[in-house]
Amino acid sequence: MAGLILRTVTKRFADAAAPAVDAVSLDVAHGEFLAILGPSGCGKTTLLRLVAGFERPGAGEIRLGDRLVADGRTHVPPEDRHVGIVFQSYALWPHMTVGENVGYPLRTRGVRGAEYRSRVAAALDVVGLGSAVDRRPASLSGGQRQRVALARCLAMAPDLVLLDEPLANLDVHLKASLLDEFQEFRARTGATMLYITHDQSEAMALADRIAVMNQGRVEQVAAPETLYHAPATAFVADFIGRGGVVAATVPQRADQGRALIEIAGHRAFVRAVPEQAAGRALVCLRPEDLALADDGLPARCRRARYQGGEWLVDVTVEGQEGRPLQLLAKPGTVPEPGTPVRVRISDGWVIPG
Ligand code: ADP
Ligand code: MG
Questions:
Q1: Mean pLDDT of 34-58
Q2: What is the rounded distance in angstroms from the CA atom of residue 64 to the CA atom of residue 45?
Q3: For 182-200, what is each residue's pLDDT tens digit?
Q4: In a mutational test of the pocket of ligand 1, which residue from 24, 46, 213, 219 has the highest number of ligand atoms less than 8 Å from its CB?
Q5: What residues contact residue 257 under an 8 Å CB cut-off, 6+ apart?
Q6: To which H or E segment does residue 230 belong?
Q7: Which pLDDT value is given to residue 87?
Q8: Which of 35, 47, 316, 327 has a 20 to 30 A CA-CA distance from 70?
Q9: Ligand 1: residues within 6 Å at CB?
């Protein structure tokens, strides 16, 4: 059974110059954890609201499992979509206990008695808060409150769980521990999940696949490693991971996924799509693709930041000052900002787009 299918889904708000969601197509498999990653304002929340049924698409269609829930004529209301939602703000009722908060959507649907109690208890157990059932939200930490919100969503046994930046309000340490919990929670429920975030480390840590959004469009949908090593566009290359993009010449067609590139008279072999043609191209270079070396490409050190263990050094190639690259250097080998350096390219990726 399919989890969620979007076909050229478009949403333009009245008076907006461009659509907030622009012809987005996605296939999320049953049980898959898909992250939607992109900068603020790129349309992530709007996409989630379309899937939940709070917005109607201007064009395209949405299917949940084998049900058509939205197209030009159809609009299944949110309460009939069997979708659970967890927001960044936990949206808990302060005057209710944890158990009452978790049970609230069940009560509104007429679930009572033993079934009510067992579903509330089971949902709280999944998030490790079984003993907090009679406490008030105010007595819980931010991370615990987010887990209550998660339990409330789970109690409904939704076919699909939508999470909109659920960790955005938490500090870095809490975030890390909740990331672990999300992974366990996922393994226990097996629910299909759409997880929205602007934080690439969250998306990378959790998702089977990531859809990268930019200005309402999905630029690439792929496993985290593929996005990192073989970005489809310059936007994805810049947005995912460290490193940068430079302009190069590809003197001849790629051969078996390897391409020769030339930058300022220096040559290197990098990865490319098998059909990569000769011509001008942008090349994605990650820090591990570069090293300081006396026979390398002329560049200049811009700045260096200590990362714990190693330094991350920003360099620019001559003539491409607007395109910073990054490499790693051991303490004691870090160049001074402003000084000339030479950089050897040992790997990279010709961006096909
Ligand atoms: P994200 O969640 O990625 O930050 P949003 O989906 O919230 O992005 O917003 C995408 C675009 O749509 C933004 O330009 C935003 O201003 C606009 N937008 C979102 N909701 C509305 C609305 N209800 N009315 C008008 N414009 C909206
Ligand atoms: Mg948002």
A1: 97
A2: 18
A3: 777 777 777 889 999 999 9
A4: 46
A5: 271, 272, 273, 274
A6: none
A7: 84
A8: 35
A9: 13, 16, 20, 38, 40-46
